[in-house]
TrEMBL record:
PROSITE patterns documented for this protein: UPF0033
Homology family: Belongs to the sulfur carrier protein TusA family.
InterPro entries from the UniProt entry: TusA-like, TusA-like_sf
Domain (UPF0033): residue spans on this chain: 15-39
SUPFAM superfamilies: SirA-like
CDD domains in UniProt: SirA_YedF_YeeD
A Pfam family that the UniProt record links to this protein: TusA
Signal peptide: none
Species per Swiss-Prot/TrEMBL record: uncultured Nocardioides sp
UniProt protein name: UPF0033 domain-containing protein
Amino acid sequence: MTPDGTPDVTPDLELDCRGMLCPMPVIELARRIGDVGVGALVAVVTADPAARVDVPAWCRMRGQEYVGEDAAGDGQPRHLVRRSA
């Protein structure tokens, strides 16, 4: 647990998509999701505001689990995806 009581989430793979704009963070996620096993957690770090919509939509279309959003160590938004298939 973190000091504020939220779960400490450690991804199996973190994708640094800082500076990338739509649709590149989702393209990178699609390209790299196969690098982890089923059940593993992938984090997509990006400040692109479209990712708040794009990543969950991609998960729905691809049968993956959108876990939610938190922040990377530097405060950048981090979108968490669990590989389901």
